[in-house]
Amino acid sequence: MNEDSPGDGQALPGSRWYDADAGPLVRPYAMTGGRTKPGPSNVRFDLIALVVVDDHPPGSAEESLLGPEHRSLLTLCRAETQSVAELAADADLPVGVVRVLLGDLLEAGFVKVSRPVPPAQLPDERILREVIDGLRAL
User: Fold this and answer.
1) CB 103 within 8 A of CB 43
2) Which residues of 47-67 are buried (b: 16+ CB within 10 A; e: fewer)?
3) What is the reported pLDDT for 29?
4) C-alpha–C-alpha distance, residues 62 and 67, integer Å
5) What's the pLDDT tens digit per position in 42-79?
6) What is the arithmetic mean of pLDDT over 23-34?
7) Which has the closest alpha carbon to 45: 3, 12, 88, 8?
8) Element (H, E) at 92
9) Which of 19, 26, 119, 121 is an S-S bond match for 9, by CB 3.0 to 4.6 Å?
């Protein structure tokens, strides 16, 4: 639909990419520049991977070059450490898009990602109970 053609959604003057019924529309591939993998290093972001803003991020000049979705994710990460799934939900973006955008932020040095400990590497529950019982006996 162009801005001069009336349609069911009746476009507002000057709002070429706006559908009155659906709101502003931006396709996921437009947010990621058509990319489906996060960065050249193909980092994998698990849904439960934790994302935090880097202690020494690039300056505000570099941040001003980021797109609105990148800045939105940074704002969410500054508020608190969040998982990839939480970021996708809070930003109202598909998880695949969030992974690509986080790859950009990671490569630019804005965020750090920590992987959760695999369940196989967690201590056995029996050992933890014995430690608790031993501490109670003191």
Assistant:
1) yes
2) eebbbebeeebeeeeeeeebe
3) 64
4) 11
5) 677 888 888 888 877 777 777 777 788 888 888 898 88
6) 65
7) 88
8) none
9) 19
